[in-house]
Design a protein that fits this description.
The chain is of the alpha/beta class and 199 residues long. It is 35% helix and 25% strand. Strands 1, 2, 3, 4, 5, 6, 7 and 8 form an eight-stranded mixed sheet that branches.
Length: 199
């Protein structure tokens, strides 16, 4: 996925996601509970929607995105005192080993050409007893894009990986993660919420 695509969509991303309000309300609640009093790294924060909504619960949040325009957009909104927004590449992080209690990467692994690299970096910066929260959009049926997925493709947003729920879970497990919680949330594009720990 080219950085320029996300730079272009940065100003309208949050408005566009209002069509998935039920999914984001679910994410805010679940993630807030999981990050209580913990140090959090969020990858692919976009305009900072999740970071702002979980800040009240977390000890600290470092919210990052590959797109400078997304971070610029995130900084234009009210920033909680315990949140820092930074530009970062999820496949090549600058943070030290064992730095965070929780890593959140929502709706992003499917657009990263090499998600294995991102998971390797997440494992490195996450504490040994840490939590990976990796909710991701999924296909209802293998090889069958619904109307909204087709619209995104026409807009230039293409998924590098098109997983069903079973395929996505298998992918995470094959990369050294044990899924401790999973739930499908229905939407215009369905989401599989996953919480993991290192095997």
């Amino acid at each position: 996925m080219k950085k320029s695509i996300w730079d272009i969509f940065a100003p309208i991303y949050e408005r566009a996601m209002k069509s998935q309000k039920n999914i984001y309300d679910f994410l805010y609640k679940e993630i807030s509970e999981a990050v209580s009093a913990k140090s959090v790294l969020e990858l692919a924060t976009g305009p900072g929607m999740i970071a702002r909504h979980i800040a009240h619960s977390a000890k600290s949040v470092v919210a990052t995105d590959f797109s400078p325009k997304m971070i610029e957009t995130a900084k234009k909104c009210g920033i909680p005192q315990n949140v820092v927004f930074e530009t970062a590449d999820a496949t090549n992080l600058s943070y030290k080993d064992n730095s965070f209690d929780v890593v959140v990467i929502a709706n992003a692994l499917h657009i990263i050409p090499n998600p294995e690299k991102a998971l390797s970096e997440i494992s490195r910066v996450l504490k040994s007893d840490g939590i990976l929260i990796a909710p991701n959009f999924i296909e209802r049926e293998k090889g069958k894009k619904n109307f909204w997925q087709k619209i995104l493709t026409l807009a230039g947003i293409k998924f590098a990986h098109e997983w069903t729920a079973t395929e996505y879970q298998s992918f995470l497990e094959s990369k050294g993660w044990k899924i401790t919680k999973s739930q499908i949330v229905k939407g215009r594009i369905d989401l599989l919420y996953t919480q993991c720990v290192k095997k």
